């Protein structure tokens, strides 16, 4: 793991003490360090390039006042820019402004944490927002996934709508929606099939599900440990679906979390929640300030 960027920069700027401004000359080497630190945190290269260009624009000419060194000023600028980039939009909130049931569609690769996050959101909506919540799984390829949703839905205290591997995902979606309407559910959470890699059939299927369900939230669930690859996954889901938010899972792992910056940059939608444990209470509003600190080390 990279040694802390803040330390590296302070070493670099020892000789720059006493300079009153950040200039093209003294910033170049520091920006190289920043670039490396972001790459080591697994931020995707094109995102790093854009980010560095923005930081450079803000840093040049910035005044170095008081007892601060140019390095400290630069770290401050980077931290602020990282937090602003990752934190744009609302964290911790789901938009439920729809004729009930408000439908939330969960999208992402297999293993990203969709089923777990579905149950975590169910629990959150029941406890924090006093909603009546129904869950359903459209994962007809993995009967075990349907069973898993049944189990965690019960743990979350929500109701589970049965589905089987013999059904078509669209039929399941229609039936669940119908049931949710008839029984006055506030929210219908729809867990979907994920593959190990991007797959055209899967993408067509989830697009059709989106058309039938007309969800008010379409959440892209992504594993923070996915690192560099997260950008490709994010791009594929963004092309297929009008995403409204991101759930970044497994932030309790030891990834530096650069995936957050990549997926935010590529999708343009807010990171709404962070998964911080396997348990159903392990869901937090994404904290961009804290996460910027983690990426910078
Ligand atoms: P799905 O295939 O996308 O539905 O993924 P699952 O919900 O089945 O999750 C895959 C694995 O990741 C399971 O073992 C979960 O317990 C685990 N998991 C999901 N979210 C988190 C998280 O935020 N932190 C940790 N540590 N594990 C998680």
From TrEMBL:
Recall the GO molecular function terms of this protein's record: 7S RNA binding; GTP binding; GTPase activity
Functional description taken from the UniProt entry? Involved in targeting and insertion of nascent membrane proteins into the cytoplasmic membrane. Binds to the hydrophobic signal sequence of the ribosome-nascent chain (RNC) as it emerges from the ribosomes. The SRP-RNC complex is then targeted to the cytoplasmic membrane where it interacts with the SRP receptor FtsY. Interaction with FtsY leads to the transfer of the RNC complex to the Sec translocase for insertion into the membrane, the hydrolysis of GTP by both Ffh and FtsY, and the dissociation of the SRP-FtsY complex into the individual components.
Limits of the SRP54-type proteins GTP-binding domain: 270-283
So what does this thing catalyse?
Answer: GTP + H2O = GDP + phosphate + H(+)
Q: What is its main location?
A: cytoplasm
Indicate what this protein is called per its UniProt record. Signal recognition particle protein
Task: Supply the EC number(s).
Answer: 3.6.5.4
State its location(s).
Cytoplasm
Specify the signal sequence span.
none
Positions binding GTP in this chain are: 108-115, 191-195, 249-252
One of the protein's GO biological processes? SRP-dependent cotranslational protein targeting to membrane
Superkingdom of the organism of origin:
Bacteria
What keywords are annotated for this sequence in UniProt? Cytoplasm, GTP-binding, Hydrolase, Nucleotide-binding, Ribonucleoprotein, RNA-binding, Signal recognition particle
Q: How does it assemble?
A: Part of the signal recognition particle protein translocation system, which is composed of SRP and FtsY. SRP is a ribonucleoprotein composed of Ffh and a 4.5S RNA molecule.
Tell what the record comments on domains. Answer: Composed of three domains: the N-terminal N domain, which is responsible for interactions with the ribosome, the central G domain, which binds GTP, and the C-terminal M domain, which binds the RNA and the signal sequence of the RNC.
**Cellular component GO terms held in the UniProt record:** signal recognition particle
Q: Which organism is it from?
A: Serpentinimonas raichei
Q: Of which family is this protein a member? A: Belongs to the GTP-binding SRP family. SRP54 subfamily.
Q: What class of enzyme is it?
A: hydrolase
